[in-house]
Each structure stands twice: as C-alpha cells, then as structure tokens.
C-alpha cells in the first residue's frame, strides 16, 4: 500500500524491489527475489573455500561484506511477507490522524523529499559497476553472483530511502509543532506529540533490524573498498597500472564514497529529526517561565515537558543503538581502525 509520504517514483521502485505485496503477483515477485538472494548467499558461502587465505581484503570482502549484503537483502525482502507488515496499515492511520490534527490542507504541508531520485542515481551506478565487472572478468557464474549482490544492495537502499522519508515526515511535523507552540492549545499539542512518538516507535519496530544490517554492510563495504582504493593509488604511484586496475580502482573509489554517503545521510536525517524534539523541550521550558499564565496551563506545560523527556523521539537500530551523530563518530573510529589494521597486514 502506498503511503501519503511515498512519491509515485518511490512506490514503483518498491514494487520492482519486491517490497510491495498487495497482490499475488507482487507477492510472487517478492518470493522470487528472496529465493534469488538465498541462492546468492549459498554460492557466496561455498566460495569461501576457494579464496586465498593470505589476502586479507579478499577474506573480508567474500567472508563478511558480501554475506552481510545478502543477509540485509533477505531480511528486507522477508518484511513484506510477514504479519508484522500489517502494522503498516495502523501506521498509515496514525500518519493521517497527525495531518488532520495539525493541518487543514495536508498536501500543502507535506515535506519536500528528493531521496527517490538519489536511489535512481545509485541504481545507475550499480549498472555501471556490473558492466565493468563483466568486462574485467567475463566468467558467467561470478557475473551472475555479482548481479544478485547488486540486486540485494539496491533493495536495501530502496528500503533505507523509504525509512528516511518517514523520518523526514516526523522531523517536518515536529518542526511545525515547534513553530505553532503556544499556551492556548497545549492539550492538543500533547495529543499530536503522543501520535508522533507512537509513529516513531512503529517505524523503529518495522525498519530497525533492516537499517542496522544496512549500516553494518556499509561499514564493511567502506573498509574493503577504502583498502582497495589505497592499493589502487599505490599502483598509480609505482606506475604499475593497466585498464583493469584503473577501472577496478575507480569503482572502488565510487563504492567507498557511496557507502560513506549512505551512512552519513542516515545518521544526519535521524539526528536532525531528534534535534526538533530537543528544541521542543526548550520551547516548553520557556513557556513555563512566562508570567501571568493560569494554573491549568502551567500544569499542562509541566505534563508536556515530562511527556517529551520520557518519550523521546529518537530513532534506533532495533534497540541496539541510537542512530545519530554519536553513532557516526563511532563508525568513523571503526573505519579508521580497521583500515589501518588492513594496511599493516
């Protein structure tokens, strides 16, 4: 089912990625893609027995990065086939109620979101990488497996885009709440915030595990490709290069930048949405400091302040960690450490 926040482009991308199961055809397509990812994961695990044990980057790429990619795709494709997906209907009702409470004309206040076109650019990059891989290798089995890996990555990217659109919607509603906050309608604002909090909890429960796996796969991919990029730059310095090395090196640079961009955009948008909640606490405290407010309004403001503190609007990766700038700084530390370790091996 298409939500009020999904553009037509994103909706059709979700259908193509197997994330929509409204009809038997869509369900069959989703199951087919899921089976394809299971085949890809099996092939990947079998190929572990044939990789050279003395090349750390190959072990990391085939032993960790690719399996994480497949697992992320499998979990993402499993979501529409579970009963938990029916919770999204309740989520749609919540979103509609929030808009009805906050705005008279809901379309006028919809957040301006440009994430779907970014996914199209990512898909084009995947296509270029498949072409370069096929040109450099030419082996049918490895090319087919590479295509399956790319499908998994594209699927999880579309899922992440959908997740971030909902995050942006919550951020947009909180921002409007901050702008409209006054002493007259505190009870109404408390109702709106409660619905936004439930909205946020539902998003975390549906997408938390997928986002966590997506972040893990991005970390692993960035480490592998950053090491490959450094090796490529070293080959340029010693003038030991050819068309294959150059094309592979350029794609590794692209993968490093793409993986970094995905992690940054996820942490950035979640942090910005959480900041609106922090701003709301500050504004409520300022209203409490005003003079000549009635006892009833003061009680409502105090209750609202406690409500915001106890029910923080924050986004978590399945309860494992909070997605914000602190997570991004931790990721930077992990990336730096493991890249240095790989260089020293």
Automatic annotation (TrEMBL):
<feature type="transmembrane region" description="Helical">
    <location>
        <begin position="253"/>
        <end position="270"/>
    </location>
</feature>
<keyword id="KW-0812">Transmembrane</keyword>
<feature type="transmembrane region" description="Helical">
    <location>
        <begin position="113"/>
        <end position="135"/>
    </location>
</feature>
<dbReference type="GO" id="GO:0007165">
    <property type="term" value="P:signal transduction"/>
</dbReference>
<feature type="transmembrane region" description="Helical">
    <location>
        <begin position="31"/>
        <end position="51"/>
    </location>
</feature>
<feature type="transmembrane region" description="Helical">
    <location>
        <begin position="315"/>
        <end position="343"/>
    </location>
</feature>
<dbReference type="GO" id="GO:0030425">
    <property type="term" value="C:dendrite"/>
</dbReference>
<keyword id="KW-0472">Membrane</keyword>
<keyword id="KW-1003">Cell membrane</keyword>
<dbReference type="InterPro" id="IPR013604">
    <property type="entry name" value="7TM_chemorcpt"/>
</dbReference>
<dbReference type="GO" id="GO:0030424">
    <property type="term" value="C:axon"/>
</dbReference>
<protein>
    <recommendedName>
        <fullName>Gustatory receptor</fullName>
    </recommendedName>
</protein>
<keyword id="KW-1133">Transmembrane helix</keyword>
<comment type="similarity">
    <text>Belongs to the insect chemoreceptor superfamily. Gustatory receptor (GR) family.</text>
</comment>
<dbReference type="GO" id="GO:0043025">
    <property type="term" value="C:neuronal cell body"/>
</dbReference>
<feature type="transmembrane region" description="Helical">
    <location>
        <begin position="211"/>
        <end position="233"/>
    </location>
</feature>
<dbReference type="GO" id="GO:0050909">
    <property type="term" value="P:sensory perception of taste"/>
</dbReference>
<keyword id="KW-0675">Receptor</keyword>
<dbReference type="GO" id="GO:0007635">
    <property type="term" value="P:chemosensory behavior"/>
</dbReference>
<comment type="function">
    <text>Gustatory receptor which mediates acceptance or avoidance behavior, depending on its substrates.</text>
</comment>
<keyword id="KW-0807">Transducer</keyword>
<dbReference type="GO" id="GO:0008049">
    <property type="term" value="P:male courtship behavior"/>
</dbReference>
<dbReference type="Pfam" id="PF08395">
    <property type="entry name" value="7tm_7"/>
</dbReference>
<dbReference type="GO" id="GO:0005886">
    <property type="term" value="C:plasma membrane"/>
</dbReference>
<feature type="transmembrane region" description="Helical">
    <location>
        <begin position="147"/>
        <end position="166"/>
    </location>
</feature>
